[in-house]
Structures are given as C-alpha cells and as structure tokens.
Amino acid sequence: MGMVGGGAGAFIGDVHRKAAALDGQVELVCGAFSRSAENSAATGESLFLKPERAYGSWQEMLEQELELPAEQRMELVCIVTPNDIHLPVARAAMEAGFHVISDKPATRDLAEALELKSVIESADGLYALTHTYLGYPLVKEARDLIARGELGILRKIYVEYPQGWLSTLLEATGQKQADWRTDPARSGPSGCMGDIGTHAATLAEYISGDLIDEVCADLSIFVEGRRLDDDGSVLIRMAGGAKGVLTASQVCSGEENNLNIRLYGESGGLEWSQQEPNTLWLKRQGEPARRLRAGVDQGYLGAAAQAHMRPPSGHPEGYFEAFANIYRNFASAIAAHAAGEPHDALLDYPTIEEGVSGLAFIDAILRNDRSGEKWTKVLRDSR
Question: Same domain for 362 and 233?
Fold first, then answer.
C-alpha cells in the first residue's frame, strides 16, 4: 500500500496505518505523506520505509511506482488527505490501474462523487471508502436482524452524532484538523454535516437496508466567525416508508464521539452506541430488553457479526478493530479480484455507492435548508 497524506501532525493517517496492519493483510511500502517533501521524508523514515519510496508528491509516487516491477510496486493507494485532494488522487490512481481506499467523504460534493463513480466503473481496480462504523460486528448484527424481519416492518429511526470539539472558534488558533474542516475550499459546502452527519446517514442506511429518500433540514452556525455549519437537525423519510430524525453537532460541549442509533419496527427495536460498541440492545413490547454482546464465543450472533470479531466476550474491541475489518475485507476482495474469483459477500466494505449516497444526502439538506421547501428529494444520479 502507498499512502497519500498522513504525515506529521495528521490524525487519520496513523489510524489507517494501524488498522491496515492489524490483520497482516496490508503492508505500507511507500507514501507521499505531505505537501512538504521534508515532512514526507521524515514520516517515511519514522515508518522505516526506504528513503527513495517516501515521495515528495502523490504524482511522483504514482509515476515512480509504475516503473517498478509488479512484484515490488504498490497495489493499493490509500487517501488520507483533506477532502479537496480525494478526487484528483483517486481518479489518477484508478486510471493508472491501482486499487484505492479513501477516507470519507469520497469527494467534496455530489458532482465530484458522480465523476469519481464514472471513473471507477470504467477502471479495472477496486475502490473502498472507510466509513469506519460499518465495520463494527454488532452493527452488522443489527443489519442482519432487520433483514431477517426480527423487528417487522421498520417504522422509526433516530440517529445522532454529537461532538463538542468545535464549541469554540478552534480554527482561528491554527489547529490543523479544525482549519481544513471549516474551510469550504478544502472541506466542501458543508462542515459538521459533511464531516459527521454523513456517518450518521450512512449508518442509518446500512443498518436499515434502506435509503434516505426525502429530507427536511435545519442547519446552523453557532460559533461566530465560522464559515460552515457546525450543527444540523434533519427529518428523514426512508424509501421503504420509515421516518426518522438525524442530528449531528460539533458544538455539544462535553461530548466526545457519541454516535448512536435506535430503530423501531412493528414488533421490536434495536439500540447501539459507538461509545459502547460491544453491546446491542434488542427490545420487544412487554418483554425485558435483551443485551447482545460481541465475542466469538457468542454463538447466538449471526454469521456476519461472527466474521468480524476476534477475541471472546469480555475482551473489548473498538474503533481500530472496526477500521481494520474494512481493510481486511478490502484486501480479501483485492485477492479475489486478482485470482478472478468471486468475493465472499459476508466480507463487505463501503464502496463508491455509499460515497455517492452520503454526498447526495448532503446535497439535499443544503438545498432544503436554503429553500422554502418543506421536503427535498435526495437525488443520487444527477443534480
């Protein structure tokens, strides 16, 4: 694997490197870790890479890696940059014949995502998007329970993602993560909703097995001087008839990463929280709530959950393991692709479809918030 971004001072690049290494399926062999050649070289040295494979730019990395023998060159490009770099790197890498795994969102906006989708469909390589929370075993169990009809017809979805780290004008202090996430040119047209609201939307769609079809949105900028939304509340209508509420905020002082979801059908409900990911609550009217626990020794869990756990119950797995599940599954898909064999559907991973859907959701809530409409259609094919 070759990495674009993730140099000294970055956050998510180190997470990707650790997750990719966890199952021994992916090896980092090169990178263009920063726009600064010095930073990139220093990062490469700290990761024990050969000096000649710590490149000064992503363009140089693609060019030089293509000149290496097939058994030496990278197979996979990992993109962990601010959002404005996602499209040009992914497009160039796919067109050069490499596989791509990208941090979310896929691109800055829906138009770019649709352009990237077209590139992917005409390329030979595979593309994955690290919507981390879809890698948790009990998220997969929740999806399976709903698919098997354990809740009956789905009626209500409540999903929220409150954070507190942008409760002040942090970007004015020069803090790197705040700086680019609140810059429209680098982040895209939405701040909080584009950053974490897409996580909430993707989680709701994945577990429910349904798509958000219409939205009614109220977006806010609470911190004076900020250029992009830092809070949002959205009423959602699912294509299959369920209705719900999605909220995301980065100004909920005191909150950490409290992504949580509740889903209710005609005969039961489910509740899961990212900050307590090894527990899934199954609720039925007139009965005690049942606590489902992660662990390879929990034989009552379905095949999808079992395929994404490592230790027995009581040994907590969390964020890194969920991230690693996406890498392991994508590595499995790449191996199957190279062998001309079908990939095991149980080992799923987010693709450009989730990327387009998330940015279609952002496009719809922005259009709705700026208009006098009560409901705005989510358009996944074109603007």
Answer: yes
CATH code, domain carrying 270:
3.30.360.10
Q: Is the pLDDT of residue 125 over 70?
A: yes
pLDDT tens track for 130-165: 999 999 999 999 999 999 999 999 999 999 999 999
- Residue listed under structure tokens 């990212």: 274
Query: How many structural domains compose the chain?
Result: 2
Residue 383 has pLDDT above 60, yes or no: no
How buried is residue 162: exposed, middle or buried, by Cβ count under 10 Å (0-12/13-18/19+)? buried
Joined together, the tokens standing for residue 247 give 């909220």
Residues spanned by the domain of 31: 2-130
Buried b vs exposed e over 34-45: b needs ≥16 C-beta within 10 Å?
beeeebbbbbbe
Is the omega angle on the peptide bond into residue 105 within 30 degrees of 0, that is, cis?
Answer: yes
Answering whether pTM is above 0.70, one says yes
Residue 345 lies in a domain: no
Helix (H, G, I), strand (E, B) or coil at 12: helix
The answer to whether residue 243 sits within a structural domain is yes
Is there a domain that residue 176 lies in? yes
Query: Over the range 360-369, which residues count as b (16 or more CB within 10 Å of their CB) and which as e?
Result: bbbbbbbbbb
